[in-house]
Amino acid sequence: SPTELGDVMFEKWKETLLRPSMAAALTPSRKFILGIPGGRSIRPFLHVWRARAPEIALEDYQRLHIFATDERWLKPDHAEHNFNQFLNLTGRELAQKKFLTSGQLHQIGDTGLSIHDASFQYEREVIAATEARGRMSLIILGLGEDGHIASIFPGHTLGRTGLYAAISNAPKPPAQRITATPLLIESSLEI
Fold first, then answer.
1. What is the pTM of this model?
2. Which residue, among 100, 97, 132, 125, has the nearest Cα to 111 in the 3D structure?
3. Residue spans of beta strands (DSSP E) within the chain
């Protein structure tokens, strides 16, 4: 069931977040960088996280930074915006309860920059949060019905090899997206 799946995902995330060896492997300031996808696959986890949020100590929340693994190129408040889904299902409530601050929630979207400039800016934000290590502590990925992971679609190539890439011809609407690249996914400490 979706709730059981959400419970399993939450337990894995909690175990990874709290593992002493993970904390030592992160950044000098012990930040935990979480990459979350959009779409339906993450929803069970988000529902369970909201319900079980008090199980995580406040000091562990304080070292958490959340990034999108991929994003539809839409205004940040658009209903189909992936990070907005996280905020609506979990993020805003965690912020209201003082588990997270806005500085820990790293959103990307159409805010006036070109999609290419925004992908470079988001990459710089990841690099800054990871203290130049450029890798996530844990990246959660879903698998689209057509086989896409993040916004990496079968048969499509990314025009860039950095941590994030802009896409202008995705086969699934909307055609414009920003995605984590294989480099970022493969360099993550946990997938």
1. 0.91
2. 125
3. 32-36, 64-68, 70-72, 105-106, 138-139, 164-167, 177-180
